[in-house]
Amino acid sequence: MIKPLVAGNWKMHGNTETASHLAAQLVAQWSDRPVAERSVEMVLFPPSVHLSLVKGAVAGSGIAVGAQNLSQHGSGAYTGEISGDMLVDQGCDYVLVGHSERRDLFGESSATVAEKFKAAQSSGLIPILCVGETLRQRQQEQTVAVVTAQIKAVIDCVGLHNVCRAVVAYEPVWAIGTGETASPEQAQQVHRAIRNQLGEVGLSTRLLYGGSVKASNAAELFGQPDINGGLVGGASLEAIEFFNIVKRAE
Ligand code: PGA
């Protein structure tokens, strides 16, 4: 049995006040049960400037914290960048790698994504590798080819075993922030293809679905056999809504 994970990607939203308030609300909701009895893991991805604040706010609650991005370099003259070791130092357990906004808006190639994945694991972080097709690629029936190629680029760099000990998030680009969600069947079909690609080694790898996940559609999505939780953007900025999504994964 794979323990589901529900991740909240706050993207570039909020300030110190809203970040600490949101974290405190989630802790209050989440604290009704001992950590050991929880059947879902919750991870928050605040902007990097709010990492230590949020880490402090969730201390002792069992909620984990991760970063939205990292440098592929270990250290050095890379103005504006943040290394994996720095994120660990801030209390991060996870890091997003290859989010479609990084690929599309910041020109991250699959090769760069693979290097970032490798850097994350060398620092002891668990990467959440995001993959997904555009609407055009889906219309051209290239979905599985695109997604498996994005994963293969990372397998070629770090090996299958290392990809399987990370988390993979399938996020169709056309469903991110649009209010449109893949149907549970569409999502499951891609998740099954990913599971097949990872083979035996990946039988217990967590595969998340992302793209306009809400409390109203989460149960059906999380009920699919190869969907082990979600990566949530917009809906993670609302404590009650996000907490209801987390509960759907139980
Ligand atoms: P969304 O974002 O839930 O707002 O669609 C998901 C994501 O970008 O991870």
Question: Which SSEs are present, and which pair or pack?
Answer:
Blueprint lengths: L4 E5 L6 H15 L10 E5 L5 H8 L5 E4 L16 H6 L4 E4 L2 H6 L4 H13 L3 E6 L3 H5 L3 H16 L1 H5 L2 E4 L13 H15 L7 E5 L4 H8 L6 E4 L6 H10 L2
Parallel strand pairs: 1-2, 1-8, 2-3, 3-4, 4-5, 5-6, 6-7, 7-8
Helix pairs in contact: 1-2, 1-11, 5-7, 7-9, 10-11
2-phosphoglycolic acid binds next to strand 8.
Summarize, please.
The chain is of the alpha/beta class. It has 11 helices and 8 strands. It has helices spanning 16-30, 51-58, 84-89, 100-105, 110-122, 135-139, 143-158, 160-164, 184-198, 215-222, 239-248; strands spanning 5-9, 41-45, 64-67, 94-97, 126-131, 167-170, 206-210, 229-232.
